[in-house]
Amino acid sequence: RRVHGEKVLALVMFAQSRCLFKTSLHFQFRLASSTPMATLIRDLRAKTNAGLADCKKALEATSGDMDQAIEWLRKKGIASASKLTSRVSSDGLIVVSQKNGEAVMLEINSETDFVARNEKFQSFVRNLSSVAHTIPSPPTPLCANSLHLAVPIDLILEQKVVDPITTTSTLIPVHDALKSVASNFGENIRISRAIRVQGRTPSSVVGSYVHNHVAENMGTMGAIIALQSSIPSLSPEQAAAVHDLANQLALHIVGAGTRYLAIENCSGADVESEKAVHIELAKKSGKPDDVIAKIVAGRMKGFFDETVLLEQKSLTVEGNPKISQVLANTAKKFQLGTLDVVSFGRFKLGETSKAPATE
After folding, report:
1. Are 132 and 106 in contact (CB under 8 A)?
2. What's the gap between Cα 53 and its chain centre?
3. Whole-angstrom distance, CA of residue 100 vs CA of residue 110
4. How far from 231 is each of 197, 226, 228, 277, 337, CA to CA, in Å?
5. Cα gap 201→231, rounded to integer Å
6. How would you classify residue 49: left for phi > 0, otherwise alpha for psi between -120 and 50, otherwise beta?
7. For the chain, what is the mean pLDDT?
8. 107 SS3 class
């Protein structure tokens, strides 16, 4: 019985040792094999900012090929981003850019300012402003109020940019890049509007201003403007003076809420609507019709003084002269002949965000 017990004990100890050996080998094998995968997951996450689970799925689906995994995630992002497009996005960035005698301004919307302050999002927005410079505008002004030109969004969406999330050298269409950004941040990202101002002669100069800077040339409000002198060309001193004035006027436009370039550019519907309000208010006073006419005329003058650029008083020049006088004074001082505003545009973040315009 004792011998039999010893044999049983020996068999049990042998079985345990085999089990421990196999477990140890299995553990070592898993440890050795999982370490490269962990490294790949970490690297893929750093490149794409995707979740750990998604990175693991991408690497498993592509047998650990990093480039294919990035493409897998990008395609997955395009698929999931479509679910976000119905959500209202009223935050984001206004971006301005000046190049080759023209200025462009775009509004790219996100749902939160958290995304707007992200460096990858800002880099993407900056790339979009560069793309806008390459796209021609229709010759007819988009807006009769301020005579700026449209930059067609459908053409922007067709251009190619570096993938803003993976930042690889691969170029993808802007519409795919928007979806990639949307998927990465889990928010609806869209291009709301894009405009351009440009001069018509070598003596034209553009300027811009961005309010509430988030990054260089990006903020929550912005304006661009083009000025033009009547002389054939500008000296470096003259060009610098006109450029400074253009930037000042852009700042003024943002601060003053300028809507129209000149009185003749005011929308007939806007003028009639404003006039009807003042007529109705004046009639309640019970005054004679000729007095009411004078009251309405005075209030309409006030409306033009508040909304028309050339009638507004400057917010940036000492003494607050009219903008038309500021232009005349600068032209006289620097021998520019006449100095005119060709066109301008003003954006405020979220103004057009009630309904999504683009994916």
Report:
1. yes
2. 31
3. 29
4. 20, 15, 9, 44, 6
5. 9
6. left
7. 84
8. strand
* pTM score: 0.75
Phi-psi region of 281 (alpha: psi -120 to 50; beta: other; left: phi over 0): alpha
The residue behind tokens 């300028």 is: 258
Q: Give all strands (DSSP E) within the chain, no chain letters.
A: 91-99, 102-110, 149-150, 160-162, 171-173, 190-198, 204-211, 218-219, 221-229, 339-348
Distance between CA atoms of 94 and 350, rounded to whole angstroms?
10
Kindly tell me if the per-residue pLDDT of 19 is higher than 60.
no
Contact call for residues 146 and 257 (beta carbons, < 8 A): no
b/e sequence 100-122, b meaning 16+ C-beta within 10 Å: eebbbbbbbbbbeeebbebebbb
In residues, how long is the chain? 359
Rg (CA), the chain: 32
Q: In what order do the strands lie in the sheet with 218-219?
A: 149-150, 190-198, 102-110, 91-99, 218-219
* The residue to which tokens 């903020």 are assigned: 219
Structure tokens at 150: 């449209």
Closest CA to 198 of 85, 321, 344, 329: 344
Q: How buried is 184 (Cβ within 10 angstroms: 0-12 exposed, 13-18 middle, 19+ buried)?
A: buried
With a cut of 80, say whether residue 223 has pLDDT above it. Answer: yes
Calculate mean pLDDT across residues 65-83: 66
- Which of 19, 44, 22 is closest to 166 using CA atoms? 44
